[in-house]
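User: Fold this, then the next.

Assistant: Folding the first:
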Amino acid sequence: MARTQSRKSTMKIKSHIISKNKKAHFSYIISDVFTCGLQLKGSEIKSIRNGQVNLSESYCIMSNNELWVKNMDIARYKFCNEEDYAPLRLRKLLLNKTEIKKIKKQLDEKGMSLVPIKLIINEKGFAKLEIGLGKGKKNYDKRETIKKRDSDIEIHRKKREK
Protein backbone atom coordinates (compact mmCIF):
# COMPACT_ATOMS: atom_id res chain seq x y z
CA MET A 1 0.00 0.00 0.00
CA ALA A 2 1.56 3.26 -1.13
CA ARG A 3 1.48 6.33 1.03
CA THR A 4 0.39 9.58 -0.47
CA GLN A 5 1.96 12.76 0.74
CA SER A 6 -0.13 15.79 1.42
CA ARG A 7 0.34 18.73 -0.88
CA LYS A 8 1.47 20.95 2.00
CA SER A 9 4.46 18.76 2.80
CA THR A 10 5.63 18.62 -0.82
CA MET A 11 5.23 22.35 -1.44
CA LYS A 12 8.03 24.50 -0.13
CA ILE A 13 6.71 27.89 0.87
CA LYS A 14 9.35 30.57 1.24
CA SER A 15 8.95 33.83 3.06
CA HIS A 16 8.23 36.74 0.78
CA ILE A 17 8.39 40.48 1.24
CA ILE A 18 5.05 42.29 1.30
CA SER A 19 6.20 45.88 1.84
CA LYS A 20 9.48 47.77 2.20
CA ASN A 21 10.18 51.09 3.86
CA LYS A 22 12.52 52.71 1.33
CA LYS A 23 12.97 55.82 3.47
CA ALA A 24 14.46 53.80 6.35
CA HIS A 25 17.88 53.16 4.81
CA PHE A 26 17.94 56.62 3.23
CA SER A 27 17.14 58.54 6.44
CA TYR A 28 18.86 56.33 9.03
CA ILE A 29 22.13 54.49 9.53
CA ILE A 30 20.79 51.10 10.61
CA SER A 31 23.01 49.28 13.13
CA ASP A 32 20.87 46.37 14.38
CA VAL A 33 17.92 44.55 12.79
CA PHE A 34 15.29 42.59 14.73
CA THR A 35 12.47 40.42 13.41
CA CYS A 36 9.31 40.55 15.46
CA GLY A 37 5.75 39.36 15.25
CA LEU A 38 2.68 41.57 15.06
CA GLN A 39 -0.53 41.41 17.04
CA LEU A 40 -3.18 41.71 14.32
CA LYS A 41 -6.89 41.17 13.76
CA GLY A 42 -8.17 38.64 11.23
CA SER A 43 -9.14 41.18 8.60
CA GLU A 44 -5.76 42.93 8.93
CA ILE A 45 -3.73 39.82 8.12
CA LYS A 46 -5.90 39.23 5.06
CA SER A 47 -5.21 42.77 3.86
CA ILE A 48 -1.48 42.27 4.46
CA ARG A 49 -1.50 39.06 2.41
CA ASN A 50 -3.17 41.05 -0.39
CA GLY A 51 -0.32 43.59 -0.17
CA GLN A 52 -2.48 46.47 1.04
CA VAL A 53 -0.04 47.90 3.57
CA ASN A 54 2.15 51.02 3.70
CA LEU A 55 5.21 51.39 5.94
CA SER A 56 6.53 54.72 4.68
CA GLU A 57 5.31 56.95 7.55
CA SER A 58 5.42 54.33 10.32
CA TYR A 59 7.68 54.31 13.36
CA CYS A 60 8.10 52.33 16.59
CA ILE A 61 7.64 53.53 20.14
CA MET A 62 8.33 51.95 23.53
CA SER A 63 5.92 52.31 26.42
CA ASN A 64 5.73 50.21 29.60
CA ASN A 65 8.46 47.84 28.35
CA GLU A 66 6.38 47.03 25.27
CA LEU A 67 7.08 47.92 21.65
CA TRP A 68 4.35 49.38 19.45
CA VAL A 69 4.30 50.33 15.79
CA LYS A 70 2.48 53.55 14.98
CA ASN A 71 1.10 54.85 11.64
CA MET A 72 1.43 51.52 9.83
CA ASP A 73 -1.33 51.87 7.28
CA ILE A 74 -3.20 48.61 6.66
CA ALA A 75 -6.08 49.15 4.25
CA ARG A 76 -9.49 47.81 5.13
CA TYR A 77 -10.17 44.29 3.84
CA LYS A 78 -13.03 44.49 1.34
CA PHE A 79 -15.04 41.69 3.02
CA CYS A 80 -14.52 43.07 6.54
CA ASN A 81 -17.72 43.78 8.52
CA GLU A 82 -16.13 46.08 11.11
CA GLU A 83 -17.85 49.45 11.23
CA ASP A 84 -15.15 51.27 13.21
CA TYR A 85 -12.04 49.98 11.40
CA ALA A 86 -8.94 52.09 12.13
CA PRO A 87 -6.20 51.62 9.49
CA LEU A 88 -3.57 53.59 11.47
CA ARG A 89 -4.14 52.10 14.93
CA LEU A 90 -1.32 51.13 17.32
CA ARG A 91 -0.18 47.54 16.83
CA LYS A 92 1.83 45.63 19.41
CA LEU A 93 5.18 44.11 18.41
CA LEU A 94 5.95 40.67 19.81
CA LEU A 95 9.56 40.19 20.99
CA ASN A 96 11.39 38.31 23.74
CA LYS A 97 12.09 40.16 26.99
CA THR A 98 15.83 39.98 26.39
CA GLU A 99 15.45 41.58 22.96
CA ILE A 100 13.22 44.31 24.40
CA LYS A 101 15.81 45.04 27.12
CA LYS A 102 18.58 45.23 24.52
CA ILE A 103 16.52 47.63 22.39
CA LYS A 104 15.59 49.77 25.40
CA LYS A 105 19.24 50.03 26.43
CA GLN A 106 20.25 51.24 22.98
CA LEU A 107 17.26 53.59 22.64
CA ASP A 108 18.38 55.43 25.77
CA GLU A 109 21.40 56.65 23.80
CA LYS A 110 20.99 60.02 22.16
CA GLY A 111 19.74 59.99 18.59
CA MET A 112 18.78 56.30 18.33
CA SER A 113 15.44 55.41 16.73
CA LEU A 114 13.44 52.29 15.91
CA VAL A 115 12.23 52.19 12.31
CA PRO A 116 10.22 49.48 10.49
CA ILE A 117 12.27 48.24 7.52
CA LYS A 118 10.11 45.59 5.86
CA LEU A 119 7.06 43.44 6.37
CA ILE A 120 7.28 39.79 5.40
CA ILE A 121 5.10 36.68 5.49
CA ASN A 122 7.16 33.74 6.78
CA GLU A 123 6.98 30.05 5.84
CA LYS A 124 4.17 29.40 8.34
CA GLY A 125 2.06 32.26 6.99
CA PHE A 126 2.64 34.67 9.88
CA ALA A 127 3.29 38.37 9.33
CA LYS A 128 6.69 39.48 10.65
CA LEU A 129 8.05 43.01 10.82
CA GLU A 130 11.76 43.74 10.53
CA ILE A 131 12.67 46.75 12.63
CA GLY A 132 15.99 48.52 12.54
CA LEU A 133 17.74 50.35 15.32
CA GLY A 134 19.55 53.29 13.83
CA LYS A 135 20.77 56.85 14.04
CA GLY A 136 19.35 59.62 11.88
CA LYS A 137 21.49 60.76 8.96
CA LYS A 138 22.50 64.37 8.45
CA ASN A 139 21.75 66.14 5.16
CA TYR A 140 25.32 65.78 3.89
CA ASP A 141 25.14 62.00 4.55
CA LYS A 142 21.95 61.83 2.49
CA ARG A 143 23.62 63.73 -0.36
CA GLU A 144 26.52 61.27 -0.31
CA THR A 145 24.05 58.38 -0.52
CA ILE A 146 22.38 59.96 -3.55
CA LYS A 147 25.75 60.53 -5.27
CA LYS A 148 26.82 56.95 -4.61
CA ARG A 149 23.53 55.57 -5.96
CA ASP A 150 23.77 57.72 -9.10
CA SER A 151 27.35 56.62 -9.75
CA ASP A 152 26.38 52.95 -9.32
CA ILE A 153 23.53 53.38 -11.82
CA GLU A 154 25.92 55.04 -14.26
CA ILE A 155 28.40 52.16 -13.96
CA HIS A 156 25.67 49.57 -14.57
CA ARG A 157 24.48 51.47 -17.67
CA LYS A 158 27.99 51.52 -19.13
CA LYS A 159 28.43 47.80 -18.46
CA ARG A 160 25.15 47.03 -20.27
CA GLU A 161 26.17 49.11 -23.30
CA LYS A 162 29.36 47.10 -23.79
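Now the next one, as you asked:
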Amino acid sequence: MSNVYFRRLLSTSAGALLLTFGGTIVSASPAFAQQPDNTANNKQEAAPGSPTADQQKESAADRDLTKKIRRSLTEDKSLSMYAHNIKIITHDGEVTLKGPVKTEDERAAIEAKATSIAGSGKVQNQLTVK
Protein backbone atom coordinates (compact mmCIF):
# COMPACT_ATOMS: atom_id res chain seq x y z
CA MET A 1 0.00 0.00 0.00
CA SER A 2 1.55 3.33 -0.97
CA ASN A 3 1.91 6.18 1.51
CA VAL A 4 -0.43 8.43 -0.49
CA TYR A 5 -3.13 5.78 -0.70
CA PHE A 6 -2.79 4.99 3.01
CA ARG A 7 -3.03 8.68 3.99
CA ARG A 8 -6.16 9.12 1.86
CA LEU A 9 -7.67 6.03 3.41
CA LEU A 10 -6.98 7.33 6.93
CA SER A 11 -8.22 10.82 6.13
CA THR A 12 -11.65 9.70 4.99
CA SER A 13 -14.27 10.26 7.60
CA ALA A 14 -17.28 8.77 5.85
CA GLY A 15 -18.50 5.85 7.96
CA ALA A 16 -16.31 3.05 9.26
CA LEU A 17 -12.65 2.86 8.39
CA LEU A 18 -11.76 -0.60 7.18
CA LEU A 19 -8.23 -1.82 6.74
CA THR A 20 -7.31 -5.20 5.37
CA PHE A 21 -4.25 -6.95 6.79
CA GLY A 22 -3.58 -10.44 5.41
CA GLY A 23 -7.26 -11.08 4.70
CA THR A 24 -8.40 -9.96 8.17
CA ILE A 25 -10.71 -6.98 8.31
CA VAL A 26 -10.19 -4.62 11.25
CA SER A 27 -12.86 -2.03 11.94
CA ALA A 28 -12.12 1.32 13.57
CA SER A 29 -15.76 2.34 13.45
CA PRO A 30 -16.90 4.75 16.18
CA ALA A 31 -19.94 2.52 16.65
CA PHE A 32 -17.69 -0.16 18.16
CA ALA A 33 -15.48 2.16 20.21
CA GLN A 34 -16.17 2.34 23.93
CA GLN A 35 -17.48 5.75 24.85
CA PRO A 36 -16.28 7.32 28.11
CA ASP A 37 -19.01 7.52 30.73
CA ASN A 38 -18.42 9.15 34.12
CA THR A 39 -22.10 9.57 34.91
CA ALA A 40 -22.02 7.26 37.93
CA ASN A 41 -18.85 8.89 39.31
CA ASN A 42 -20.22 12.38 38.82
CA LYS A 43 -23.49 11.55 40.61
CA GLN A 44 -21.57 9.99 43.50
CA GLU A 45 -19.29 13.02 43.80
CA ALA A 46 -22.25 15.40 43.85
CA ALA A 47 -23.15 14.53 47.44
CA PRO A 48 -25.09 17.28 49.26
CA GLY A 49 -22.75 19.97 50.59
CA SER A 50 -19.78 18.59 48.67
CA PRO A 51 -17.93 21.12 46.47
CA THR A 52 -18.27 20.62 42.74
CA ALA A 53 -16.08 21.85 39.88
CA ASP A 54 -18.61 24.52 38.90
CA GLN A 55 -18.08 26.14 42.30
CA GLN A 56 -14.45 26.92 41.47
CA LYS A 57 -13.90 30.57 42.32
CA GLU A 58 -12.84 32.95 39.61
CA SER A 59 -10.56 34.95 41.89
CA ALA A 60 -6.99 35.26 40.66
CA ALA A 61 -5.64 33.75 43.89
CA ASP A 62 -7.84 30.63 43.65
CA ARG A 63 -7.08 30.14 39.96
CA ASP A 64 -3.36 30.52 40.62
CA LEU A 65 -3.46 28.02 43.49
CA THR A 66 -5.31 25.49 41.32
CA LYS A 67 -2.85 26.06 38.47
CA LYS A 68 0.17 25.48 40.74
CA ILE A 69 -1.28 22.23 42.10
CA ARG A 70 -2.23 21.00 38.61
CA ARG A 71 1.25 21.79 37.29
CA SER A 72 2.85 19.94 40.21
CA LEU A 73 0.76 16.84 39.45
CA THR A 74 1.27 16.83 35.69
CA GLU A 75 5.04 17.31 36.01
CA ASP A 76 5.27 14.17 38.17
CA LYS A 77 5.53 11.45 35.53
CA SER A 78 5.39 8.71 38.20
CA LEU A 79 1.68 9.49 38.69
CA SER A 80 -0.95 7.73 36.58
CA MET A 81 -3.20 9.39 34.01
CA TYR A 82 -6.00 9.15 36.57
CA ALA A 83 -3.92 11.18 39.02
CA HIS A 84 -3.10 13.78 36.38
CA ASN A 85 -6.82 14.25 35.69
CA ILE A 86 -8.31 14.60 39.16
CA LYS A 87 -10.62 17.49 39.94
CA ILE A 88 -9.02 20.33 41.91
CA ILE A 89 -11.61 22.70 43.32
CA THR A 90 -10.39 25.84 45.09
CA HIS A 91 -12.75 28.10 47.00
CA ASP A 92 -11.32 30.96 49.08
CA GLY A 93 -7.97 29.19 49.45
CA GLU A 94 -9.54 25.88 50.51
CA VAL A 95 -8.70 23.03 48.12
CA THR A 96 -10.83 19.93 47.52
CA LEU A 97 -9.35 17.00 45.58
CA LYS A 98 -11.79 14.61 43.87
CA GLY A 99 -11.66 11.70 41.49
CA PRO A 100 -10.21 8.22 41.12
CA VAL A 101 -6.52 7.35 41.45
CA LYS A 102 -4.72 4.03 40.95
CA THR A 103 -3.21 3.43 44.41
CA GLU A 104 -3.25 4.57 48.01
CA ASP A 105 0.34 5.80 47.51
CA GLU A 106 -0.82 8.05 44.67
CA ARG A 107 -3.64 9.36 46.84
CA ALA A 108 -1.16 10.26 49.59
CA ALA A 109 1.36 11.77 47.14
CA ILE A 110 -1.28 14.02 45.58
CA GLU A 111 -2.46 15.21 48.99
CA ALA A 112 1.13 15.93 50.03
CA LYS A 113 1.79 17.95 46.87
CA ALA A 114 -1.43 19.95 47.28
CA THR A 115 -0.72 20.56 50.98
CA SER A 116 2.82 21.77 50.26
CA ILE A 117 1.37 24.36 47.87
CA ALA A 118 -1.91 25.35 49.59
CA GLY A 119 -0.73 24.99 53.20
CA SER A 120 -1.50 22.71 56.10
CA GLY A 121 -5.19 22.31 56.91
CA LYS A 122 -6.25 23.79 53.55
CA VAL A 123 -6.70 20.52 51.59
CA GLN A 124 -9.68 18.18 51.72
CA ASN A 125 -8.80 14.82 50.14
CA GLN A 126 -11.84 13.11 48.61
CA LEU A 127 -9.83 10.99 46.18
CA THR A 128 -10.85 7.36 45.76
CA VAL A 129 -8.61 4.41 44.94
CA LYS A 130 -9.87 2.64 41.83
